[in-house]
Design brief:
Helix content is 64%, strand content 0%. The protein is built from seven helices and no strands. The longest helix has 36 residues. The termini are far apart.
Length: 120
């Protein structure tokens, strides 16, 4: 009498496990895609418009000096307002735009800039 090979006994269960893993992976990816899409679709139209524009570094520097340097320092090193040198590690572009226009962290005022000025 011959014994079944070990591979013959384990391959059906391995195949089933692989299929289950692939189905779970596909389901997880689908859920993440839906969540990402919902997050993108809820972006404020002003933020969305600003993010689609190409900013000018030169114009941005002028705007910063006129509107921000008084509190954040001429080099963004922080005075009354916080140091801005590593701010992009803490907040993404959408969050930064909302921060500037909202003024939700006193004493920072809210700024109403055209999308192009914000992109700069």
């Amino acid at each position: 009498m011959t014994e079944p090979s070990p591979n013959a006994a384990t391959s059906p269960s391995q195949g089933g496990g692989l299929i289950r893993a692939l189905v779970l992976l596909a389901a997880s990816a689908s859920i993440l895609l839906v969540l990402w899409f919902l997050g993108i679709s809820q972006i404020n139209p002003y933020v969305r418009a600003t993010l689609h524009l190409k900013g000018s570094q030169e114009r941005g520097l002028q705007l910063f000096r006129m509107n921000c340097a008084g509190c954040h320092g001429i080099a963004g090193q922080g005075l009354v307002g916080p140091d801005l040198h590593r701010i992009s590690r803490k907040k993404n572009d959408s969050q930064l735009i909302r921060q500037v226009v909202s003024g939700k962290t006193p004493p920072m005022p809210s700024f109403e800039l055209e999308p192009q000025a914000m992109a700069d």
